[in-house]
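Quick check before the chapter quiz. The format below is the same one you will see on the exam, so make sure you can read both the input and the output lines.
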Amino acid sequence: MPEEKKQGLEPEKWIERYSDYLYSFAYARLRKEEVAEDLVQDTFFSALRARDTFLNTASEKTWLVSILKRKIIDYYRKKSTQNELNIFDKPVQTADGTRDHFFEDTATMSGHWSEAAAPKAWKKDFETSVESDEFYDILKRCITKLPEKTAAAFTMKNMDDLDTEEICKELGITPSNYWVMMHRAKLMLRECMEKNWFTA
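Here is the expected output.
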């Protein structure tokens, strides 16, 4: 949009111009309406307080999004709990009633599924755009079922394209913690999708 390029700030127009976009941005990452609304409001307040720091090197919208991203990361950090990281030896119930681990070697983080925990093959293809939309809607709902910190790591990697080092720094976790959380997220998402989409 031409009017967004290198213009001065116009706080009186922020709500009209950007509230819907910022809300959608936050909701896509948090899947919580009230939290998304609160963070958008906080973003506007923080931007007002920091308006003298706006350098006019990016668009007004880009600047507001950068503030909102920081709010989302801060929310993740406050909501995260250390017990989410204690999943290295989390067992899984297999079909024959035995107990097994999610991955072959969590000590070395090889990343290979154990035979008992290996997900089913996905054979269903999209035939229409409606099916595609339904798939992504279910996937987003499945993400909300992840533990808070695990969802944060998964979202920061796959939606915001942050690198591993930055994610670990922002969430206060080690690389080993990160890889376990990502493996755990993938397993839980596959299980959720298999129940809600692929077996339908």
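If your answer matched, good. Residues 153 and 167 are 7 Å apart (CA to CA).
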